[in-house]
Amino acid sequence: DAKTTQPNSMESNEEEPVHLPCNHSTISGTDYIHWYRQLPSQGPEYVIHGLTSNVNNRMASLAIAEDRKSSTLILHRATLRDAAVYYCILRDNYGQNFVFGPGTRLSVLP
Amino acid sequence: NAGVTQTPKFRVLKTGQSMTLLCAQDMNHEYMYWYRQDPGMGLRLIHYSVGEGTTAKGEVPDGYNVSRLKKQNFLLGLESAAPSQTSVYFCASTNRQGGYNEQFFGPGTRLTVL
Predict the structure, then answer these.
(1) pLDDT digits (tens, 9 = 90+) for A71-96
(2) Chain A closest CA to B6's CA: distance in Å?
(3) How far is the alpha carbon of B104 from chain A, nearest alpha carbon, in Å?
(4) How many beta carbons lie within 10 A of that of residue B10, not counting itself?
(5) DSSP per position, B10-34
(6) Is A80 helix (H, G, I), strand (E, B) or coil?
């Protein structure tokens, strides 16, 4: 699986939008972009994924660059509960596992 | 529907002791995985299984064994625990292979080896 690069940490104020970036310059055409998050003392949980087009769900939006070398996870209104480590992961159809990097630790300030 | 459950939640072992961690899923998933997470790090794959009766090595398999005798259960064994195996262990499952499929994770087992 190709590698991703994320900032170590980010801060946001409560009820403001948050844009979490991810670079994946070696992405291949069959790689899906996944985002997971890990709340304190919990297992990772799925947030969103996409291939080429931007995606929206009840938790977040995923904006994918036209060349697919980067993507951004958007939390539209951060809450204190969104404080977590966010992982950007690439996965192709043949990969048996997710390769987790250190992720971005998001702090949400009241 | 409990999802993915792990037993036990916490365990303290002495060096050289053995133990088995149990992962169970009730979603009829084919694929199951064991990861470990060290402080400040991402998850690393230990072993995985693509179906009942099958297992395969992941990134960091040394010192661990696994078994998948039933589709819903995936066991992780430590035959002779070492302090380097102090970590949080997560189990995950997914219904099939494919880049679009999400993994469902359990709550984790915190293991300390003295």
Answers:
(1) 999 999 999 999 999 999 988 766 66
(2) 11
(3) 7
(4) 10
(5) EEEE-TT--EEEEEEESS--SEEEE
(6) helix
